[in-house]
Design brief:
- The chain has 205 residues and is of the alpha/beta class.
- The chain is 45% helix and 18% strand.
- It contains eight helices and eight strands; from the N terminus they run βαβαβαβααβαββαβα.
- An eight-stranded mixed sheet has the order 3-2-1-4-5-6-7-8, sandwiched between helices.
- Helix 1 links the parallel strand 1 and strand 2.
- The radius of gyration is 17 Å and the shape is globular.
């Protein structure tokens, strides 16, 4: 079974984890400081709660799906573990671990997050999730970009475990593009909701 980490177990994270577990993955998470509701969602999704150090050492892919304000701090924690366990983790350089930032942060923020892993054994992918949490009959799309196309192609193989992945690659693409796409989607959604609310208000006058 493919070992993959999803942090944390919010509505999106737990739904993504459940889809991966159903597809045959072993999904680790870390619930330090999380609510009872998060623990229940993780249990229901089939996630395995482990210390963060164990999660980093066991997982090929680490999907960061946390509240945006926590995105950088979580990445810093992972980088700290990578640096502390450099000798052990460097043994996997032929098949490197990859940190995938899936958070609704702006392009500059995701570049800062990606910069944390520069010069380490951990690789980095910028992934924007466009759409709501997965559910039966519905899948959001993970738009992904990085500096290395081979790594992106490997990330696309997660589609065989239930994720819908669309790669952003080619001349001029790089870290920040997926987050830009996610940001545009969020702005459009807000505009549509505001429009719907104004029509409802006018209709009710």
């Amino acid at each position: 079974m493919l070992p993959i980490a999803v942090v944390s177990a919010g509505a999106m994270g737990s739904a993504v984890a459940k889809r991966l577990v159903t597809g045959g993955c072993t999904v680790y998470t870390n619930l330090d400081g999380r609510s009872d509701a998060a623990h229940q969602r993780a249990h229901d999704a089939g996630m395995i709660n482990v210390p963060l150090e164990t999660l980093v050492s066991k997982s090929k892919w680490i999907l960061s799906i946390v509240p945006p304000r926590e995105a950088f701090a979580f990445a810093e924690k992972v980088r700290g573990i990578v640096e502390e366990r450099r000798e052990l983790l460097s043994e996997s350089e032929s098949d490197p671990r990859v940190f995938v930032d899936c958070n609704a942060v702006n392009p500059e923020a995701v570049k800062r997050i990606g910069g944390l892993f520069r010069g380490t054994s951990m690789r980095f992918i910028d992934a924007g999730i466009v759409g709501g949490p997965p559910r039966p009959g519905y899948d959001p799309t993970f738009y992904a970009c990085s500096e290395g196309e081979n790594m992106l192609e490997e990330f696309a193989t997660l589609s065989q475990y239930g994720l819908r992945v669309s790669l952003l690659k080619g001349a001029g693409t790089g870290v920040g593009d997926a987050s830009s796409l996610k940001l545009c989607e969020s702005v459009c959604d807000s505009f549509i909701r505001a429009n719907e609310d104004s029509r409802t208000f006018v209709g009710n006058r």
